[in-house]
Amino acid sequence: MHVPKWAVGLNFFGIVLLATWAIALSVGKNPLPWPDPGSRIFAASSPEAKAAIVELISKHGVEERFEVNSSGILRSIMWDGTIVNYSPTAFTQKVGNASSAIGLVSNEPLISAQNAARFLRSKGFKAEVIESAEPGMPVHFVITDAMLGTALNFRPPVTQMPAPK
Question: Which domain of life is it from (predicted)?
């Protein structure tokens, strides 16, 4: 049986690509936007503080993957999904002065936020949905007294997020 050289080369290339991706996954550096596990978001007190925190945690193995800055909000997305950001006071006030958030992925972020608020209220907590706190971004927040200083945010998968403006 004769196997063309191009078929052998294509298979070899595919195996190398798959092995590279598997290695990247095993060290926590998935180069692809999926699977999207959501994020954990922490707020810095100033742009300079954000830069210092990002530099510090990078020294401890949690390196910056890229930045996504929009409408005055400065975000550093780390390889492990952690987000360190600085938000202007007006934005922080919109989200109940929460200084951190648990970011959850949903195909229907607004419906998921509304369901989460309903669930928390059924458990006896206060919960309010803040729709699209950041203009142009389909991210909806749930502010609740079930968590101190922390919001829940619901967003679509990263592959469906709009480009920052």
Answer: Bacteria
